[in-house]
Design brief:
The chain is an alpha/beta fold and 326 residues long. 38% of the residues lie in helices and 16% in strands. A 5-stranded parallel sheet has the order 3-2-1-4-5, with helices on both faces. It has a 3-stranded parallel sheet with strand order 6-10-13. α1 packs across α8 and α10 runs antiparallel to α11.
Amino acid sequence: MASTQHKTMASSGTTTNEKERILVVGGTGYIGRHVVTASARLGHPTTALVRDTAPSDDPPKAQLLQSFRDAGVTLLQGDLYDHASLLRAVRHADVVISAVRAPQVPGQTNLIAAIKEAGGHVRRFIPSEFGLDPGRGSGDAVEPARSIYSSKVGIRRAVEAAGIPHTYVACNYFAGFALPSIGQFMPKAAPVDRVVILGDGATKVVFVEEGDIGTFTVRAAVDPRAENKTLHIRPAANTMSHDELVTLWESKSGKKLERVYVPEDAVLNQIQELEYPKNILLSIAHAAYIKGLMCDPLDAMDDVEATQLYPDVKYTTVHDYLNRFL
């Protein structure tokens, strides 16, 4: 446990003196950038571990890193596969949040080793999951998603074996992936005359805006109520079936859409036929829209729900998100 001269974690999820120092690994990624932004906005001394602090060959990333600096974020050069840089980084952090991409998930054992070697400096670790709960997906999803979830479960077991206080985050569907196409698997824009629905369209799915994922993650990272728990982000207003999502869009756009339902066996065949990474994305969609793995009952001992813990967070509703496309 870090010395009390630093700060303490209050039961409300806020701090009694100084804010906890947060280190984000994978902070330039799709979700990581939102975690970094939320951490800085909420007043935490925030460090982003990056391979290159001034990438001259990647203008968008350079611009992102400059936005971090402008927000007061410290950029620290390091790498998930460089033990010395990890150890240096975690020794100056109270909380470590990993948002690395799926191929790097197994490499988080290096981060676990560094946290363990740092000897109690880190009081909370959030490994990279950010999607469906892998504890559910590893058993019920189909390949190739099942292997990804199993890898994340392996990291969970490694965290627990190391005795590191932790929070797991199951944020369900990224709104930015699903809502522009009104829940369809591949298109990037709203449907014009027809919409493709996986399964029967009745299974409940949860959509969460990426900035809200960042906010809920940071709030939980310093909240004792979320320690050694899985944080499920399930906003009630954003929990709906694909049919309900389409109906909502029709009411906003004023246009009736033809609904094309794809049975499960056809979806499974398509997963087998698609190349990487589309096969992964469709197998995740299968887990959500057909298997219903986002809305399983929560365990009162092991799970907490984000909007119940933080009712003050004004999350983006699906209703408001869809207004962007009108």
